[in-house]
Structures are given as C-alpha cells and as structure tokens.
Amino acid sequence: MGENGQQRFRFSESPLWDLQRNYFEEQGLNAWSNDQVPQYITSNPMIATAYAEMIFGFLQDQSDRGENSDPVIILELGAGAGRLAFHVLHELCKLRDYAGIVLPPFRYVMTDLALKNVKVWGNHPAMQSFIREGLLDFAVFDAVHDTELNLVVSQASIRPGDLKQPLLIVANYFFDSIPQELIYVDDGKIFECDVLVELPNNSNQLKLSEVLEKMTLKYERRRAIEYEKENYQYHNVIKLYRQELEDSYILFPMTGLTCLERLNQLSQAGFLLITADKGDHQLENWKFAEPPQFIHHGSFSLTVNYHAIQYVYEQKGAKSLFTMQHYKNLNVGCILMMESPMSYANTRLAYRRFIERFGPDEFFSMKEWVDRRLDTMGLQQILAFWRLGGYDAEFFNQSAKHISVLLPEMNDEERLDIQKGIHIMWASYYAMKQRYDLAMDAGLLLFEMDMYEDAKMFLETSLSLRNDEEESVPTIFYCLAICSYELGLAEETTKFLRKALVLEPEHVEALALLNALNESAEKRDFH
Fold first, then answer.
1. Cβ of 526: how many Cβ atoms within 10 Å?
2. C-beta atoms surrounding 215 within 10 Å
3. pLDDT tier at 40 (50, 70, 90 boundaries)?
C-alpha cells in the first residue's frame, strides 16, 4: 500500500478523470507533440478526406431538401492538436470549389476543455484563411456540464433550439477519454463496479502522466438495482444486456450519452454524429468482457461502448452506420439522428465509399505494414501510397531518404510527380511540434533533383520557421548557396556561403566555392 493508501470511488467519480482533465489542461497542445498522446491515426489527411466527403454528402442532402439558407454547424469535440479540423476544412473547401453547386453555408467549430488550446488554434497560421472566410470558430466546451456554445471569433452564443439545421458532430478519440460508468452483468443482474485507487508514493512530486501510469486499481462489485428499474433512462439497453450477457464487465457511456442529449437540444432538427475510436458496436464483443484495460500514453484511454450509443439512438429512430467487417485499430461510425434518416442518401453513400469499402482503419493497417518495408519499395509504390494517404507529411518524412536513394533510376515524369506532390503536401500541411523539419526535408530532396528554385524556397522557409533555440544546419546554407549560384544570384551565393562557414569553418565545399568566386571577382576587377 502506498503512503496515500487506498480509496474507494464509484468508477465515473474516481480521481482518474480529474487527473486526466488536469493533464490536458496542464499540457495544452504539448500533449500531442511528437505523438506523446496519439493523434496521427485520427488526424491524418486520409481520414480527414473521408470525413470531408461525408460532410459534403450531408450538405448535398440538405441542399436537395431545399435547406440552403441557414448555416450548418460542424462541431468537433475535443479537437486536440487541431490537425483534423484543418485537414477536413482544407478538403471540404476543395470539394465545394470543384463541385460548383449550391450548398448551405457551413461553419466548423473546434472545441476543447482547455482554454490554452483554443487560444493556440486561433493564432495558428494555417487557420487564418478559414477564420477570415468565416468558416472557422472556436469554443471552450466541457462535455460533462455545458449546455451551450460561446463562440470566440464571432462572439455569438448557440443555445438550445437556436439551430435550424441539424448539428453535425465530429468526435474522434473523445468518448474514450471522458467519464464512463463500469457495470458488471451476470445472472440477469446488474452490479456497479467501484474502483479502489492507490496512488504511487511521492505522487505529489511526480508528473501527472507518471501518476496515471503508476497508480494501481482494483475493482469491487455491488448490486445496483437502480439500473434495472423501468424508469431508468437507458432501461432498454440495460434490459438487453441482462438478457444477453453474463459474467461481463461493461463500460457504459453515461456521460457520452448525456453529452449527446445536451448537444441534440441545440438544434431543432437533430444531429449527425461522425466518430472514430477504439470501441465495439457489436454486442457479441461485450460477452464475457474482462475488466477494462487502461491504455497509457501520457494520459489514458479506454474502450468505447459504441453498442450502447448505437442502440439508444436506434431506439429513437436514428440510422447508424458501422462497418460490416471487424475493426483492427479504429472503429469509424456515423449516426443519423434526424427525421427520415434513410433519405440522406449522399451522406450514406459517402460512408459506404470512404469508410465501409476502404477506410481509415484499413489505411492505418497498411501504413503499419508499409512502415516496416519502406526500404524495399520502388518509387511507383511509394508514390501510390503517398497519394492514397493524401500526400501525408509524416509518410514523406519517413520515405524521403529512400526516395533520395532511388533518384538515379528516376525518369523525368517521376521527378515531376515528386515535385508536384511536395507542393500539394505543403499546401495542406499543419505545423505541429514534431521531430522532423518538413520544409528542410522537402528542400533537400528538391535540391538533389536539381530543382533549385523550389529547393531554395523550401530551405529558406525552413530557416524562417526555426526558433532561437534551434541550431541552424550548415548544409542548409551550403545548399542555398548552390541554389543561388545556379539561379545567377551572386550576392546571395556569397551570403549563404559565409553563413555556412560561420557554423562550420572547415566546410571544404563551401571554402572551395567561396575561393573560386573571390578569384573570379578579382579577375573581373583586374580586367
């Protein structure tokens, strides 16, 4: 037993959730830097494209219904690092502009519990064009308590009944990290599970992430007949569990369900939920379920009971979409809680094309396979996967060195495809704290392909984005000198060579070129 001893709590009221909340409020966006808390799987361009296609389908459906005047609010819960929102908006605007059809206006609203995250989003360079166009706003939102949205940019408030269009909700890695009930089902009876929490020794001196990882938990069951009563709010799904399950621990998403109910009140027309998480929607996967396993990654996450969410809203007339196949890493679902949900054909078709047929879960499984075999791939395979992933920056960073190795056997068309892909990637790049310098990687590869004008632009961008604490790389200045030389920019050539030599006085190539330029200048002056 630790010095703090054991304390007993109802699972949903245990200090676990306060520790989780405090962790994200303390860390802000740093929680997602270098994937401390995983974000790639739910924030890459591929999943954002799938979401944008479903949102675009929904906008088409509303247009077909003659609902073109009032704006559609796209509300992202727990927007985290902000990368998903950026990629969705980037792709959604491309779809809108390409289609050139009449659509209702839309506004994407990013929300989070941490105020510091909201402030950072509003100042992020990638978000500014969307803010100016009136397509993006922000709000602090507490999923446990809040009943309205107070928008930061427009200073507007969205209160119950204000919205005439259905509310479109995006919830990635959201339901797994907010409080849940833990119940146990056996012999037709419901037990509630309390958790005995033992914090580590010297917990006051540890980081919150360390406390979360080192604490120990034990579960104890007690009868909970209140769940079995006819007037219990979710009696029908509990009745099903009592009939179909035995010896099963069930995470029950009470907070998630009540949050959706409060959000549903904001609109006169219901909601559309697009969600992705580690979670099961099939009842058989909850049979004989073991006590929940906490997955630690700075914070923690649990499995989501998508079955309960699906069942509750289908009982209310909703149409839910989940894949027929079993998911491996990420379950992506769509719930249409609106009048005549089957009439939303474009929305449902988009789910079929971009989730059911081949979606984010399949893509991530393939990426894990590709990551392990990247050095064996040819250029056409690399280009194909890069395109499939929406010219993703992370994949380019992983493959840049191997692409460099393949340069001698490339033809002109392949070089042009790489150049074009780099520009597409950069146009949809959302800068975060990462271990890599994307602009430098792109610039150096373009330099190796003798595309000096583009290389110079990216390498100069790399320098401009470095903060005072980051060391400059002499290679960048030397490559900039060569680019400038090839472009006939004599003064810039000399400037960059001298900067390279300040950092590395014995840089052989830089010294040789600077001496040659000085000799050439002396000869011109002599003559």
1. 6
2. 20
3. confident
